[in-house]
Write a structure and sequence with these properties.
Shape: globular
CATH architecture: 2-Layer Sandwich
Radius of gyration: 19 Å
Strand order of the largest sheet: 1-2-3-4
Order of helices and strands: HHHHEEEHHHHEHH
Largest sheet: 4 strands, antiparallel
Number of helices: 10
Length: 215
């Protein structure tokens, strides 16, 4: 099983004519990716209630929406999924985004596009309870896996907060997420589902903090 062969070819031939001529290859590659995601769901399900989630409910379509994009390539060059109780419909809660792409596979988790109301709640939690968050994200093992928190940041202090606030660097974020990379060899190793699950579990305290802020 190595669906990266199809994705590499798609990268070189990202057009509808080629895709239609290789639809059978695509279907085979999709089934292989789906089988791997099913195994990942089983492992993550050992510590997270995923209900009756199946890979087909968590995988995103390969077709791109090009209406508002300068990039008019019709297809994504990856297979991806959102593993959470509500599958790809999950926007908050305990969910993990999985991205399979040759040389660029990763897992990400956090709050990617908070609403204004959610952003206000997260900032309020950071203001009232920064030590818990900093203990999580500054943990040595956590940092070795995930590095620094990612996401857009304001250039100045958000409205309602002093620019000299002790936690201003955290308060300036408008997105809050972490990611961790996987090599191609790791993706196709027999132990990948366990490796992925271990990293999903490792980032779970951060998700717990974010979900508490949104309650």
């Amino acid at each position: 099983m190595n669906f990266f062969g199809f994705l590499r070819a798609l990268f070189e031939n990202n057009n509808r004519e080629w895709f239609e001529q290789n639809k059978g290859w695509y279907e085979t590659a999709k089934k292989e990716a789906e089988a791997l995601i099913e195994k990942c769901i089983v492992e993550i399900g050992k510590f997270e209630d995923l209900g009756n989630l199946r890979a087909k409910d968590s995988m995103f379509r390969i077709y791109r929406d090009v209406r508002f994009s300068k990039n008019k390539s019709p297809y994504k060059i990856n297979f991806s999924a959102l593993i959470g109780k509500n599958g790809r419909k999950e926007m908050t809660g305990f969910a993990w985004y999985i991205h399979f792409q040759p040389g660029e596979s990763f897992m990400a988790a956090g709050i990617y596009e908070p609403t204004p109301e959610q952003l206000a709640k997260i900032r309020q939690e950071i203001d009232y309870n920064p030590d818990e968050l900093k203990a999580i994200i500054n943990n040595k093992a956590f940092k070795a896996t995930f590095g620094e928190m990612q996401g857009r940041k304001l250039k100045t202090a958000p409205k309602g907060y002093d620019k000299m606030h002790q936690e201003i660097e955290l308060l300036r974020y408008t997105q809050f997420y972490f990611s961790t990379q996987f090599t191609d060899d790791e993706v196709f190793s027999n132990s990948f589902p366990e490796l992925l699950a271990s990293r999903c579990l490792q980032v779970r305290p951060f998700l717990t903090y974010m979900n508490k802020a949104l309650d």
